[in-house]
Amino acid sequence: MSITVSALRETAAGERRVAITPEVAKKLHGKGVRVLLEHGAGSSAGFPDASYGDAEFADKDQVLQQADLLACVLPPEDASITRLREGSIVVGQLRPHGAPTRIEALAQRKVTAFSLELLPRTTRAQAMDVLSSQAAVAGYRAMLIAAENSPKFFPMLTTAAGTIRPSRVLVIGAGVAGLQAIATARRLGAQIEGYDVRPETREQIESLGAKFLDLGVSAAGSGGYARELTAEERAAQQQALADHLKVFDAVVTTAAVPGRAAPKILTKAMVEGMKPGALIVDLAADSGGNCELTQPGERVEHGGVTILGPLNLAAGAPLHASEMYARNVYNFAELLIRENSLQPDFNDELVAKSCVTRGGEKIFAA
């Protein structure tokens, strides 16, 4: 077998996913690719070593020395980068924005590195889109967290003790995470509304059985993202939103753009205008949060309102998150493997635009 594809056990705090699952290992082996994993690489995700079939296992140093392509969920540790074999390839979520030291280290090691967050948001790239697959997990889990922490039931209940009205829930942001959060709230029986500054999302929100909250502000942008609001538009949005927030029992915010600080949508004054017992789950806490009061990874109580800022939500459902992520990686790896060797075609837009380092050269300006 002329190519060795590898993965390490992820070491970031709370990270339980793995970049290569038994399913993907089997597919790679079927293509004549050797799969070499660190012992226990998939254990935290629910994949013991014995489940990997024909894959081989070794310690971390041996994996780094032999890997032609190293797949990762989060960026390798600095110590691992210095031990990568020169000329090897790294594929994963490398978080290149604002990470010049990491990019410099990869370049010095003459590693060709591909950061899957940089893939163009095109139809062809969907099968490799780790942002979308992991956002779906995060949106699902964010709504479960909201339901668990709310002082109210989400569904309507008719009991001998009387009828309990359903909770009113608002999801801000109708990207992949927001839509999955809306769908989950519907399954839980809540009365759900969705808001996004992109008017084209109305149809998607309503298709899930939710009501579209129209605040009269449109910020249709390009590449699937909203454009930045003007000061006047932001003021109008915030005033309209503040008026509506008073009726909701739970709010899940999901507005984020990779590489940028999350937009501040919920102000302190808005939170103070919400009903006692209301709950905010800020899915954008990793990038600073959509709420001014969000503390990443913490629970904040303010004026009777609870604000939660959970981090790395996808890692909380590691088995299915890993399965989707590994398929994304496999589909991207197929672009790199030709004639039983690694031959990235840099004329391919998906390959070129996701590349951050190449043979000692820095491609991406961190």
UniProtKB/TrEMBL annotation:
Annotated Alanine dehydrogenase/pyridine nucleotide transhydrogenase N-terminal domain ranges read 6-138
Q: Which residues form the Alanine dehydrogenase/pyridine nucleotide transhydrogenase NAD(H)-binding domain?
A: 147-309
- What GO terms are given for molecular function? NADP binding; proton-translocating NAD(P)+ transhydrogenase activity
Q: Which SMART domains match?
A: AlaDh_PNT_C, AlaDh_PNT_N
**What keywords sit in the KW lines?**
NAD, NADP, Nucleotide-binding, Translocase
Entries under CDD domains matching the protein: Rubrum_tdh
Top EC group:
translocase
- NAD: present as a keyword of the record? yes
- InterPro entries per the record? AlaDH/PNT_N, AlaDH/PNT_NAD(H)-bd, NAD(P)-bd_dom_sf
Recorded catalytic reaction(s): these are:
NAD(+) + NADPH + H(+)(in) = NADH + NADP(+) + H(+)(out)
**The EC number(s) this enzyme carries:** 7.1.1.1
Q: Name one GO biological process term.
A: NADPH regeneration
Give GO cellular component annotations, separated by semicolons: plasma membrane
- Function (record text): The transhydrogenation between NADH and NADP is coupled to respiration and ATP hydrolysis and functions as a proton pump across the membrane.
Stated name of the protein: proton-translocating NAD(P)(+) transhydrogenase
> Organism, per UniProt?
Dyella dinghuensis
Question: Source organism lineage?
Answer: Bacteria, Pseudomonadati, Pseudomonadota, Gammaproteobacteria, Lysobacterales
